[in-house]
C-alpha cells in the first residue's frame, strides 16, 4: 500500500473509534489529540498535505481534525 | 529437592492464628494448621521423611516421619499431624529409631546399592535418610525386586529409572497438585505398584508436558536431569529470573564453575512459587549453542561477506555510519528498536541513547506488535498502562474469564496456578475461537466457551456489557464512588442499545445469545470476577477498543481494586511490561509520560544534559514506511527479530533493504541480521545483570552466572555506542542505571538493587507511598482519579473473507517454543514441535481434499507459504490456525498490514486466506531458502577471514 494511502486508512480508523462519541466536538478533539500525540511530524505533515489537496478519502470527522492540525501548524 | 534449599516437609499454613507447642523440649510457635513436621523444621529439628516435601500436601505414606505425642496413642506421622496448643512432641527415641530403621531396611532391600556411581550421589534423600536412621545392614533377601526395571530415556531432558523408585508418589502428586496435568499415576497394587506415565507409556508418548515438577519432587535418582547425569552435581547456585514468558519465574541457576548444570525453580519466587515449565526449566542450552556469534562483524552491503573486527572498530563504524546518515538525511533519519527480551536497564539505555544521543524519539519496542493496545486502553480508562493484580490474586477469584489467551501454553506456570484455583471450584468462562486446553482439561471444564468468530471481540464485549446494563447487574455503588459518571452514562446508553444485545450480536460473533447472557450473569454476579486476556484481544484492528471494553466491563461490575478481581493482561515475553515502563515507545518517557509534557521533558533534559525532542517519533511500522519513502535510513536493533516476527514481512524485508545501515545486537545471526551491516554480539540472560518486570509488574533480578561470550554485557555495548556517538555514558554497573530510573520515574522511586536483594522482587509502583510495592492497583482510587468509561463501537475489520480468500487464518504459540524460536529452536524442545503446522477443521480439509500431514499452500492478499496440515476440530469450520516459531514457515508472509487503529499493533489474528493442497514450497520459501544460503555463506567467509 502506498504510504499516503496507508495514512488515510490509519486516520479513518482512528475516526471510526471516536465517531461513536455522541458529543461530536469531543469526537473531533479525540481524533486531533490522537494524531497530535501519536503521529510522528512527518506523518502529520503528509496527511495535512493530502487534506490540502482535497482529502477526498478522509471521513468528515477526520477532515475536521486534520483541519485543526493544519491550523495549529500554520 | 535440591540441596540448595531447605525443605520444611509440608506447605506453610496461611492461618493468622498462632499455636505454641513443645518439640523435643524446645518451644515452637507456628500458625494454626502447621504440621508437626513443618514446625519442627522451623526450629531446626529435621524429622526423617521420604514421601513429604513442602511443595506438596502431606500424604503420610512412608511412615518414616512418625513421632510420639505426649498423652497420645501410637506413633502418628508428623507430616499429617497438625500442631495444637500445648502439644508435646518427641521426634527421637529408641522405639522411633527402631521403627524407622526397619522401614529403611525394607526400602533399601529393593534399591540398587550403587551410591558411588549414582547420579544423585550427594543429593539423594534416600541416601540421607539411610544415614539419618543409622541403617547398618539389610537383612532381607527379597525373592523379587525391581532392580532390573527398564529405564525410560525418551524425554530429552530427564531420565526415568524405575529401578530406583521407592513409590513415594511425590512425582504423581507433583503432576497433579503443582502442574495439574495428571499425566502420572501409580499403577498396580502392592509389589506391582509403579509410576506410570499415562497408560504405561514412555514419557514422550504420554500426556507429560515436561514441566519438571516430578523431577523436582523425586527424592532419589529415579527422575533425574540428564545434564546432572552427564556432568555431575552442581556446586553453587545463583538465583535469577527466567528469560522466557511474561510470568517471570524465579530460578536457581545451579552451576559447576561457569557451566549451568540445571535450572531449578525457586520456591521463594513470588511469581512461580517453585514451579516451572519446559522452557524455563530445561531449554537453556541455546546460551552456549554453536550458532552463537561472539565476535563483532561489519560489512558495507548485505551482498558482502561479513568481516570480523574488534569491538572498537565495529562500534566506531556503526557510530560513523549513523552520523553520516544523519548528516545526509537529517537527524530524524535514524532510530532504534529495543526488545521485551532485554532487561529494564538495557531498554532504558537504548531509549536514552536514541532520545539523547540520536536527538530524536524514533524508538520503539516489540510490544508494538503485542501489547501496545493494553498500554493505550488501560491508560485511557484506569490511568496506568498495566495489569491490576498479582498472580496470586487468582487464588481468590470465583469466576475467571479468559479472553484470547492460552495460559497453559503461553504462560504455563500461571496456567497451572489458575487450574489449581479452578479445581478448587472457581468457575471458568473462555472466549476464544479455538478450543484451548483450559476449556476441558483434567478436573477443569469451562462453564461457558464463547467460541466467537475471529475479529468479533468488540461485538462480544458489548453484548456482555448489554446484559450487565439491562439486567440490573451494574455495581452502582462502585461506579458512583470510583468512576466518572458522565462517561459511564454515555457508555451505559450505548451498551443498552438493542443492536448491542446478545441476540443482535449473535449474527456477528456466532456465539449463541443464551450463552452470552449466562456468561455475563456469571461474571457480573460473582463475588470476585477476574479477567485475564492475551494477544487474542490486542492483535486486532480493534485491539485497543477491546481492551477498553474489558476495562468498561470490569468497572461496571465493580471488579477492580481488591484481591481476586481485576483486568490482567498476560504479557507474551519476559519483559514486555518492563520495556514499556522504560520509555520504549516513541511518544513516552519512562513511566508513561508523554514527550510533549514540558515538566517531564525538563526533568530528563536536566538529568541527561541535552535538549530533548517534544514530538513523538516513528513507531516500528512507520519506520518501515519511512524507509521505503527514503526518509529513514539507519536502525539500531537490540534483541528483536523484526524480519521474522513482524507482519507482512516482505514489506519489512524491503524496508530493511532500503536502509543504509542496520545494526543488529543479538545472540545469533537472526533473520534481521541477514539484512544488517553491523553485527554486535549480544549476551544471554545468564551472562549479564539487570532486572525483568513480569506481567504482574514484578521487578525481579537477573544475575550474571557466566562471563559474556562476546566480552560485553548488552548494556555495556549500548554505552560504547553512545560514547562513540558523542553522547557520554559512564555507568559501571546496571544498578547505577536503575538508580537513575528510580530518580526520574515516580512509580520506581523506591526501587533499587539493594531492595530487590533484600525482598527478592518488588511490584511497582514502589515509592514513598508504597515502599514494599503494590500487589493490587487502584485500591482506593484509579491512578487517573475517576475510572473513565469509553464507548466501544464494533467496527468490522477490513480484512474480510471473500470467494478468493474464504477462510480466516489466526496465529498463536505453543508450549514448547517461544516467540520467533531463536532460543527454543536451538534446544531439544524441537522434540515436541519441530515445525509449524496449519490446523484446519475436518470439514474444510475434506472440501479441499486435504489429508492430515499433506503439504498445503496458504495464500492471502499479502503472500503465500506452504505448511503441513494438521486436521483437528480444535479450530472451527472456516478458521485455520498456525504458529510462527520457524522462519521458513513464513507465517508472517501471509499476515497483512492491517493494524489496531490506536497503536498500529498488527492484526495477526485475522487474515483472509485460501488453502489448497500443493506439492512444493512457495515461491517466497524458495527465495527465502536461497537468501539464507547466501547469508550463511557470507557468514562462513567471516570465520575464514578471522
Keywords:
heterodimer, A: 74 residues, mainly alpha, 77% helix, globular, B: 946 residues, alpha/beta, 7-stranded mixed β-sheet, 6-stranded mixed barrel, 30 helices
Radius of gyration of chain B: 29 Å
Give the low-pLDDT segments of chain A: none
Helix content of chain A: over 70%
Large-scale geometry of chain A:
globular
Strand-residue fraction of chain A?
Answer: under 5%
Question: Roughly what percent helix of chain B?
Answer: 25-40%
Structure description:
- The complex is a heterodimer of chains A (74) and B (946).
- Chain A is mainly alpha-helical and 74 residues long.
- In chain A, 77% of the residues lie in helices and 0% in strands.
- In chain A, helix 1 crosses helix 3 (41-52), helix 2 (24-38) crosses helix 4 (60-73) and helix 3 (41-52) packs across helix 4 (60-73).
- The longest helix of chain A has 16 residues, at 3-18.
- Chain A is globular, with a radius of gyration of 11 Å.
- The model of chain A has no long low-confidence stretch (mean pLDDT 93).
- Chain B has 946 residues and is of the alpha/beta class.
- In chain B, 31% of the residues lie in helices and 16% in strands.
- Chain B contains 30 helices and 36 strands.
- In chain B, the strands form ten sheets. A seven-stranded mixed β-sheet of chain B has the order 13-12-27-26-25-14-15, sandwiched between helices. Chain B has a six-stranded mixed β-barrel with strand order 31-35-32-34-33-36. In chain B, strands 20-17-16-21-22 form a five-stranded parallel β-sheet.
- In chain B, helix 10 (372-381) packs parallel to helix 19, helix 16 crosses helix 17 and helix 22 (620-629) crosses helix 24.
- The relative contact order of chain B is 0.11.
- The model of chain B has no long low-confidence stretch (mean pLDDT 95).
- The chains are: A mainly alpha (74), B alpha/beta (946).
- The A-B interface holds A 1, 3, 6, 9-10, 13-14, 16-17, 19-23, 34, 36-43 and B 332, 362, 490, 493-494, 541, 544-545, 586-587, 594, 596, 615-619, 622, 625-626, 628-629, 631, 791-793, 795, 798, 897, 899, 901-904.
Amino acid at each position: 500500500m502506498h504510504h499516503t494511502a496507508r495514512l488515510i486508512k490509519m486516520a479513518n480508523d482512528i475516526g471510526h473509534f471516536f465517531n461513536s462519541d455522541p458529543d461530536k466536538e469531543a469526537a473531533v478533539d479525540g481524533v486531533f489529540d490522537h494524531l497530535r500525540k501519536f503521529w510522528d511530524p512527518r506523518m502529520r505533515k503528509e496527511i495535512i498535505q493530502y487534506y490540502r489537496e482535497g482529502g477526498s478519502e478522509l471521513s468528515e470527522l477526520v477532515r475536521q481534525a486534520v483541519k485543526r492540525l493544519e491550523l495549529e501548524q500554520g | 529437592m535440591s540441596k540448595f534449599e531447605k525443605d520444611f516437609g509440608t506447605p506453610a499454613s496461611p492461618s493468622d492464628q498462632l499455636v505454641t507447642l513443645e518439640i523435643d523440649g524446645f518451644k515452637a510457635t507456628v500458625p494454626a494448621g502447621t504440621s508437626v513436621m513443618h514446625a519442627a523444621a522451623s526450629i531446626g529439628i529435621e524429622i526423617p521423611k521420604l514421601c513429604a516435601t513442602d511443595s506438596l500436601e502431606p500424604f503420610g505414606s512412608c511412615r518414616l516421619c512418625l513421632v510420639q505425642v505426649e498423652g497420645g496413642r501410637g506413633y502418628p506421622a508428623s507430616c499429617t499431624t497438625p500442631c495444637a496448643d500445648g502439644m508435646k512432641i518427641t521426634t527421637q527415641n529408641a522405639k522411633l529409631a527402631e521403627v524407622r530403621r526397619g522401614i529403611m531396611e525394607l526400602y533399601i532391600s529393593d534399591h540398587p546399592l550403587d551410591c558411588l556411581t549414582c547420579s544423585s550421589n550427594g543429593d539423594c534423600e534416600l541416601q540421607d535418610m539411610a544415614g539419618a536412621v543409622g541403617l547398618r545392614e539389610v537383612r532381607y533377601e527379597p525373592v523379587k525386586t525391581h532392580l532390573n526395571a527398564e529405564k525410560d530415556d525418551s524425554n530429552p531432558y530427564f531420565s526415568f529409572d524405575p529401578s530406583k523408585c521407592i513409590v513415594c508418589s511425590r512425582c504423581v502428586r507433583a503432576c497433579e497438585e503443582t502442574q495439574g496435568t495428571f499425566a502420572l499415576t501409580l499403577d498396580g497394587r502392592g509389589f506391582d505398584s509403579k509410576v506410570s506415565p499415562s497408560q504405561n507409556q514412555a514419557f514422550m508418548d504420554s500426556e507429560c508436558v515436561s514441566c519438571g515438577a516430578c523431577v523436582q519432587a523425586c527424592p532419589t535418582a529415579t527422575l533425574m536431569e540428564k545434564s546432572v547425569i552427564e556432568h555431575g552435581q552442581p556446586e553453587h547456585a545463583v538465583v535469577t529470573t527466567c528469560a522466557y514468558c511474561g510470568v517471570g519465574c524465579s530460578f536457581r541457576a545451579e552451576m559447576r564453575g561457569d557451566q549451568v548444570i540445571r535450572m531449578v525453580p525457586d520456591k521463594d519466587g513470588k511469581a512461580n512459587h517453585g514451579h516451572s515449565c519446559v522452557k524455563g526449566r530445561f531449554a537453556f542450552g541455546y546460551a552456549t549453542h554453536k550458532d552463537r556469534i561472539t565476535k563483532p562483524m561489519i560489512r558495507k552491503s548485505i551482498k558482502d561477506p561479513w568481516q570480523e573486527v574488534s569491538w572498537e572498530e565495529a562500534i566506531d563504524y556503526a557510530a560513523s555510519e549513523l552520523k553520516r546518515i544523519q548528516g545526509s538525511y537529517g537527524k530524524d533519519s535514524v532510530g532504534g528498536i529495543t526488545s521485551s527480551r532485554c532487561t529494564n536497564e538495557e531498554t532504558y539505555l537504548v531509549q536514552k541513547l536514541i532520545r539523547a544521543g540520536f536527538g530524536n524519539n524514533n524508538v520503539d519496542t516489540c510490544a508494538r506488535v503485542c501489547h501496545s493496545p493494553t498500554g493505550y486502553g488501560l491508560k485511557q480508562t484506569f490511568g496506568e498502562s498495566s495489569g491490576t493484580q498479582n498472580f496470586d490474586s487468582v487464588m481468590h477469584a470465583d469466576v475467571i474469564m479468559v479472553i484470547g489467551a492460552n495460559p497453559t501454553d503461553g504462560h504455563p506456570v500461571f496456567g497451572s496456578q489458575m487450574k489449581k484455583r479452578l479445581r478448587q471450584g472457581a468457575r471458568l468462562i473462555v472466549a476464544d475461537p479455538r478450543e484451548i486446553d483450559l476449556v476441558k482439561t483434567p478436573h477443569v471444564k469451562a462453564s461457558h466457551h464463547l467460541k466467537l468468530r475471529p475479529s468479533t471481540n468488540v461485538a462480544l464485549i458489548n453484548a456482555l456489557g448489554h446484559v450487565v446494563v439491562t439486567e440490573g447487574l451494574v455495581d452502582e455503588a462502585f461506579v458512583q464512588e470510583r468512576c466518572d459518571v458522565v462517561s459511564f452514562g454515555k457508555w451505559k446508553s450505548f451498551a443498552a442499545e438493542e443492536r448491542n444485545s446478545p441476540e443482535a450480536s449473535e449474527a456477528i460473533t456466532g456465539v449463541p445469545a443464551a450463552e452470552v447472557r449466562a456468561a455475563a450473569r456469571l461474571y457480573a454476579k460473582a463475588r470476585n470476577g477476574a479477567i485475564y486476556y492475551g494477544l487474542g484481544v490486542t492483535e486486532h484492528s480493534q485491539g485497543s477498543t477491546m481492551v477498553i471494553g474489558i476495562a468498561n466491563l470490569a468497572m461496571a461490575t465493580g471488579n477492580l481494586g481488591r484481591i481476586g478481581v481485576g483486568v490482567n493482561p498476560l504479557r507474551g515475553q519476559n519483559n514486555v511490561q518492563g520495556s514499556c515502563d522504560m520509555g520504549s515507545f516513541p511518544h513516552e518517557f519512562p513511566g508513561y509520560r508523554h514527550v510533549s509534557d514540558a515538566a517531564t521533558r525538563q526533568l530528563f533534559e536536566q538529568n541527561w544534559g541535552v535538549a530533548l525532542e517534544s514530538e513523538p517519533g516513528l513507531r516500528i511500522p512507520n519506520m518501515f514506511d519511512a524507509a521505503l519513502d527514503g526518509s529513514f535510513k539507519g536502525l539500531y536493533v537490540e534483541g528483536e527479530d523484526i524480519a521474522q516476527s513482524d507482519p507482512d514481512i516482505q514489506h519489512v524485508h524491503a524496508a530493511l533493504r532500503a536502509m543504509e545501515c542496520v545494526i543488529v545486537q543479538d545472540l545469533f545471526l537472526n533473520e534481521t541480521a541477514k539484512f544488517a551491516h553491523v553485527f554486535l554480539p549480544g549476551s544471554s540472560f545468564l551472562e549479564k545483570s539487570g532486572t525483568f518486570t513480569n506481567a504482574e509488574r514484578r521487578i525481579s533480578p537477573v544475575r550474571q552466572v557466566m562471563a559474556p561470550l562476546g566480552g560485553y554485557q548488552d548494556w555495556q555495548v549500548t554505552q560504547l555506542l553512545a560514547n562513540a556517538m558523542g553522547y557520554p555514558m559512564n555507568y559501571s554497573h546496571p544498578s547505577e542505571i536503575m538508580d537513575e530510573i528510580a530518580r526520574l520515574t515516580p512509580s520506581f522511586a523506591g526501587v533499587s538493587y539493594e531492595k530487590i536483594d533484600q525482598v527478592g522482587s518488588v511490584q511497582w509502583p514502589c515509592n514513598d507511598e508504597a515502599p514494599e510495592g503494590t500487589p493490587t492497583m487502584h485500591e482506593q482510587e484509579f491512578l487517573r482519579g475517576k475510572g473513565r468509561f469509553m464507548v466501544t463501537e464494533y467496527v468490522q475489520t477490513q480484512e474480510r473473507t471473500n470467494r478468493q480468500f474464504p477462510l480466516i487464518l489466526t496465529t498463536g504459540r505453543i508450549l514448547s517454543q517461544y516467540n520467533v524460536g531463536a532460543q527454543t529452536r536451538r534446544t531439544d524442545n524441537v522434540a515436541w514441535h519441530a515445525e509449524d503446522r496449519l490446523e484446519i477443521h475436518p470439514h474444510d480439509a475434506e472440501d479441499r481434499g486435504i489429508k492430515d500431514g499433506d503439504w498445503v499452500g496458504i495464500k492471502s492478499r499479502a503472500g503465500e507459504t506452504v505448511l503441513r496440515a494438521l486436521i483437528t476440530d480444535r479450530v472451527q469450520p472456516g478458521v485455520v490456525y498456525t504458529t510462527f516459531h520457524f522462519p521458513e514457515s513464513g507465517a508472517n508472509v501471509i499476515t497483512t498490514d492491517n493494524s489496531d487503529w490506536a497503536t498500529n499493533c498488527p492484526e495477526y489474528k485475522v487474515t483472509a486466506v485460501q488453502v489448497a493442497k500443493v506439492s512444493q514450497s512457495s515461491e517466497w520459501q524458495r527465495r527465502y531458502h536461497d537468501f539464507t544460503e547466501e547469508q550463511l555463506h557470507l557468514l562462513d567467509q567471516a570465520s575464514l577471514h578471522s
